[in-house]
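User: Fold this; tokens only.

Assistant: Input:
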Amino acid sequence: MKSESYTPGHNQNASDFMARRTLESHGAFFIPYLEEKASVLDCGCGPGTITLGIARRVWPAEVVGVDFGQSQIDRANTSALREGVSNAKFKAADCYLLPFADSTFDRIFSHALIEHLADPVRAVGEMYRVLKPGGIIGLCSPDWGGFVLAPPSSELTSAVTAYTALQSKNGGDVNAGRKLGTHLEAAGFDDVQMSARYECYSSMDFIGEYLALQLEGKADGRSAETLRAWSRQKAGMFAQAWVSAVARRTQ
């Protein structure tokens, strides 16, 4: 990802945040397509927790996780070794220039990547290239147009607006979820099916700190403190809308 900046970064808080995600919690929509012995690419794998779940499903087929952050690849490789998942491999790679031959994989999965890309159709086009004809792709991204935060306040609204502006400035799209289907069609995919769900975070402190650190890193201490104060309220909620899309490469 050379034309944008990854808003969450790769600090310990962000990496731990991503590592809480599993195939069952964040990739359930794609489980029906994970057939035994199907090779899979996980594009934007982060610390690899979802990738390892995929590898267990398709054993003994090879699963490859790629991410542009070397620290994430190192963490993923360590986890695979520790958990004894021998059919999962991880490597640093650019999603705009995937280091694989045409028609390599039976399945492609990508979670929480598209919303950070300045040119998502180009990246999805690369996924099309390395997917075998007849293969299936599954994408999932949040959509900030569906976020629900409670209790509401003008200060909280301003802080969230500051975060969305930061991600947009970094080249991302906070409303990427609703556009996944059109991105897939533009890249050549057929039979697009979209769905959505809500995730309610169990730890207000964790999500509040996750967002606050990113704003604090851009010298927006006021918004960061607003988010931290909000996350300490007992009657609070952070509900995130996730949109998923599944499609097929027919040719």
